[in-house]
Amino acid sequence: MAVTPLPGIRACVFDAYGTLFDVAAAATRCADVLGPRSAALAQLWRDKQLQYSWLRGLQGRHADFWQVTGDALDYALETLAIDDRALRERLMALYLTLDAFPEVPAVLARLKAAGMTTAILSNGSPRMLEAAVAAARLDGLLDHVLSVELVGVFKPHPKVYQLAVDRLAVPASAIAFQSSNGWDAHAASAFGMRVVWCNRYGQRAERLPGAPDHMVGNLAELPALLGFA
User: Fold this and answer.
1) Predicted TM-score (pTM) above 0.85
2) Domains in the chain, ordered, with CATH?
């Protein structure tokens, strides 16, 4: 069945962690020390990282994503009974240079060649995002790298999605937002963006306000959805 492209899109905005960058990469690179515990550590670290961002938002006690990431890692290490300071420092350093998913550079290049504005909109701190983008050599493929630190609150607060509208000077309805996180995809849709849920991990649909316009397995399917076959 043919897919109807999203009409009127002027900008493509991407979540960073889990969408462009593989959040499991740091733990995977430490498999020499972690062994079979690397997958469990990666999952628990990510779960607590997200939980701490949401809970801080509810409490009105914002801290940047670097601190949240470190706190989540400390929780995960303690839970798994791993007491290794050198490993902790290695994992944090590696989080600054997470691997981009294989299709990402080519997809961004295709969008840029088609004249599309491209941007990141992420919970990551400016330092974290700058390091990740540079390490993956995506610098020339992104017009904007937007951190929630500009508004002082994490996703899914509407202020975050409004930040993209304001900085790109494009209405929400003309933005295609891509995220691997179902809750993020729903929140962007409820805000008014057109949304492509990059469901890399085979998640079930969320029961939340909003609904993605399309679901894809990876970002290689995105150009066709925008009419750039």
Assistant:
1) yes
2) 11-22+99-225 (3.40.50.1000), 25-95 (1.10.150.240)
